[in-house]
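Got a spare moment? Tell me how you read both lines of this record:
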Amino acid sequence: MEWGRPGVIALAAAAGRLGWDESTWSAGRVALSESAAVEDGRFLPELLITPPQRHRRWTVLLRMLLLIPHFIVLWALGVAAAVVAFIGWFAALVLGRLPEWISGFLTLYISYSTRVGASAWLLVDRYPPFVVGDPEFPVDVEIRPGTLNRWAVLFRFVLLIPAAVVAAVTSWGFGVLAFFLWLIILVMGRNPRPVFDASVAALRYSMRTNAYICLLTGAYPKRLFGDAREEGEAAKVAAGTRPLVMSRGGRVLLIVFIVLGVLAMVGNGAMSSTQPSPHEYQYAHLG
């Protein structure tokens, strides 16, 4: 892989501070090969999480405090990713694909944010490393950037609305129950399967939506309720969440996420619409 291209030097330097060297960009557990640019861009991104047998209660208790360094890094990388994705939109519109350095950076950003998200959602017990290519961490994101339909690129921000709404609703629903889920795992010292299944399903759909937004795939986000059972029930034990075969309790809890997410978003919108603006408040006092 060539690293002398304009625009990639600063990103490579920043990534190097996180341990994202050239070998990490071109190999490792994040699927981004030299032939990625010519692959069919309809590959649906995959998420593999190997669940822990037990959670250490002290890490569950302090999880959000422990992840503060990662949140700071994610904020900085998120700003850079937004700029890179904006540039990538124009490039994909012209080339029919993302330039390799753009797809590489965005793939690693989504992989890193998903790993941190898996830790924040108590899906894994190990502390996430700052090096994305760590093969020991039990979260693996596979994205295969490829060729894109230019019309789909042009109207991407319109096309993504339904998927973005679904991802937002499930995330809000998880947020409503987050304290109770945290308390259950803290007391039990493990993540019950229905909770694990529903949380992984929501996180995977969010990851797929982010990959679609960033033009890393032409495959529209789908399979919120998991993969078909006949695709490998036996493989679930050996391969974690790939395929994601959800339990009945997990599906029910995911529906609860959706219902609570809709109610929370509607309630938040209603409260915002009923609150007077600063100008209305000043006018009322003047009257």
Notes: Confidence is low (pLDDT under 50) at residues 1-14, 22-38, 231-238.
